[in-house]
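hi! just following up on the protien thing from before. the input was this:
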Amino acid sequence: MSWFQENRSKFYAAFRWLVSPLVRGFSNIGMPPWVVSTAGLLFTVLAFVLMYRGAVPIIDGNFGWMRAAGAVLLFAAIWDTIDGELARRTGKASPKGAFLDSVLDRVSEFILFFGIFLFWNLSRLDSVLLFGLLFTSLSISYIRARAEGVGIECKIGIFDRATRVVILGVGMVLLPQYINWIIRILLAGTLFTALRRFVHVLSRK
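and the predicted 3d structure came back as:
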């Protein structure tokens, strides 16, 4: 295990501990995990709406609404963690639930990138790079799904969905004027992760 993966595992463990009271609360009131998964998607839609609201001011250098969209995106990421924890705590983890969560994650990712494409003042090159980022992001998830479908575990790589969302959300909050460079960083990381997973699967016997 690499230094990054080891410390990321510790971070995830600490994060799960922080959200455990919320998970217990949802469990006590009998909230189904799918409701939490759907809420995460709805928060992403809210981030999309905030980006739409900020599309005009962004021309004049006012990124307030875009920062708000990044904050909502980070909040939505919390719900992506809670649904899995809730399913395990309530004993409702199932293949159907995992399937629904995965599909909603892909929809959320598309909505997010589509919002950036529509509402940020991107150059043609940056729009092309954003399209490449969407492709490589979906490829990471697809490669893992197909690998696990043939019995090969494939969770390697740094730029999984959680990492991508955190980097993008933090970047939108702190450095919204440099969204083009955030796209470049994410594209490089996702491309490397996708290729690494691809080679990993093909090298298995």
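The mean pLDDT is 88.
DSSP finds seven helices and no strands in the chain.
cheers
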